[in-house]
């Protein structure tokens, strides 16, 4: 598998040689050289990858309604220092070996709550993952049970395909009753953010930053439709309340005549990658209702972190069909106009 790409290049090389009407096949020794070059390069790539994997920096961001309300970032070495709790339990997602007990080592959420403090009235903590998955756990349960952000499994860093480098685990073996409220879907892989309660709405656009009061000044739009968010929203028709992206951009003094598109960034890493930006064409932003949603349901409640709030992206039915493939971004944080 790992050398497919390089072998393909060798094949391509051979094919190219023959493009202009092939009379001369490459000699065996020529082929051997190509193969060796490809295999050397392959070894190089694999070695590099292994190295990067071991040294990979993985931060954990703590934010939301902590005592101070500020955002704190813990780096990998700080996380290693905090990882003092061992939990022996089955792995909720080990389908091959569901009975096998592993020793997970990690950071107790309990200690994070003590260190960062919580605002009195909050009841939940939400864990956001690299892939924009999120799970929410009641603080009551976090205080009662040893639920940890594991950074090691049987003494080794947790591989990505097993949920690492940071994997939210629940003490199933020690406290089987916890399964009722927290099934295996709650074992979040590759956690990047811990949000106490829900953050306050804040969207940055160039040098401006808009909060909920700013967004509330704009014309309000209501949509009723099935939502495109991945998890934790009702599956039928849902009422969404928000403001049009074009109005938001105007409020931030962005001239829509001078830009070609807008990149929307959410909290999760998959919504922040420059290689695969979530990019909306100005044409569509002008033509149809693309919304920043700030409230939902009949009671117009604010959107909790559990559902990806306080601000999410939504597309109305009057949008062109190409927007059907766009992600309904959760935890929207930034709009970046593109010239
Ligand atoms: N980061 C992340 N964690 C996740 C998920 C996910 O999509 N992303 N899926 C959850 C669900 S619903 C289940 S059942 C288990 C196993 O997911 P899998 O079957 O996609 O591996 O992981 C849970 N943790
Ligand atoms: Mo699942």
Task: Tell me about this structure.
- The chain has 339 residues and is α+β, with helices and mostly antiparallel strands.
- The chain has 2 domains: 61-196, Oxidoreductase, molybdopterin-binding domain (Sulfite Oxidase, Chain A, domain 2); 202-338, Oxidoreductase, molybdopterin-binding domain (Sulfite Oxidase, Chain A, domain 2, Alpha-Beta Complex).
- The protein is built from 8 helices and 20 strands.
- Strands 2-1-10-5-6 form a 5-stranded mixed β-sheet. Strands 3, 4, 7, 8 and 9 form a 5-stranded antiparallel β-sheet that branches. Strands 12-11-20-15-16 form a 5-stranded mixed β-sheet.
- Helix 1 runs antiparallel to helix 2 (28-55).
- It is globular.
- Bound molecules: the ligand Nc1nc2c(c(=O)[nH]1)N[C@H]1C(S)=C(S)[C@@H](COP(=O)(O)O)O[C@H]1N2 and molybdenum atom.
How are the secondary structure elements laid out?
Blueprint: H1 4-17, H2 28-55, E1 60-64, E2 72-74, H3 76-82, E3 85-90, E4 101-108, H4 109-116, E5 124-129, E6 134-138, H5 139-144, E7 148-153, E8 156-157, E9 167-169, E10 191-196, E11 202-205, E12 208-211, H6 212-216, E13 220-226, E14 237-244, H7 245-251, E15 261-266, E16 278-281, H8 282-287, E17 290-296, E18 301-302, E19 312-315, E20 332-338
Parallel strand pairs: 1-10, 11-20
Antiparallel strand pairs: 1-2, 3-4, 4-7, 5-6, 5-10, 7-8, 7-9, 11-12, 13-14, 14-17, 15-16, 15-20, 17-18, 17-19
């Amino acid at each position: 598998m790992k050398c497919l790409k390089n072998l393909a290049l060798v094949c391509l090389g051979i094919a190219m040689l023959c493009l202009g009407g092939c009379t001369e096949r490459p000699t065996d020794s020529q082929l051997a050289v190509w193969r060796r070059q490809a295999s050397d390069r392959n070894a190089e790539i694999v070695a590099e990858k292994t190295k990067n994997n071991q040294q990979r920096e993985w931060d954990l961001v703590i934010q939301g309604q902590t005592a101070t309300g500020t955002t704190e970032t813990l780096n990998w070495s700080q996380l290693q220092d905090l990882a003092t709790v061992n939990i022996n339990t089955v792995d909720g997602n080990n389908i091959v070996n569901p009975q096998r007990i592993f020793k997970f080592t990690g950071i107790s959420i309990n200690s994070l709550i003590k260190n960062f403090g919580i605002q009195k009235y909050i009841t939940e903590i939400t864990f956001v993952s690299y892939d924009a998955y999120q799970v929410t756990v009641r603080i009551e349960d976090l205080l009662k049970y040893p639920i940890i952000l594991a950074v090691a499994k049987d003494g080794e860093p947790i591989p990505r395909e097993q949920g690492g480098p940071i994997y939210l685990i629940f003490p199933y073996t020690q406290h089987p009753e916890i399964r009722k409220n927290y099934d295996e879907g709650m074992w979040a892989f590759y956690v990047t953010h811990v949000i106490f309660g829900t953050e306050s709405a804040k969207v940055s656009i160039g040098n401006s930053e808009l909060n909920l009061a700013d967004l509330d000044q704009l014309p309000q739009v209501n949509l009723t439709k099935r939502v495109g968010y991945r998890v934790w929203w009702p599956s039928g028709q849902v009422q969404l309340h928000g403001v049009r992206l074009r109005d938001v951009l105007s409020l931030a003094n962005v001239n829509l005549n001078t830009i070609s598109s807008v990149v929307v960034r959410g909290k999760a890493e998959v919504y922040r990658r420059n290689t695969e930006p979530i990019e909306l064409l100005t044409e569509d932003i002008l033509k149809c209702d693309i919304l920043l949603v700030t409230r939902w349901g009949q009671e117009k409640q604010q959107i909790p972190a559990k559902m990806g709030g306080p601000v999410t992206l939504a597309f109305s039915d009057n949008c062109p069909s190409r927007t059907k493939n766009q992600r309904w971004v959760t935890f929207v944080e930034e709009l970046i106009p593109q010239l």
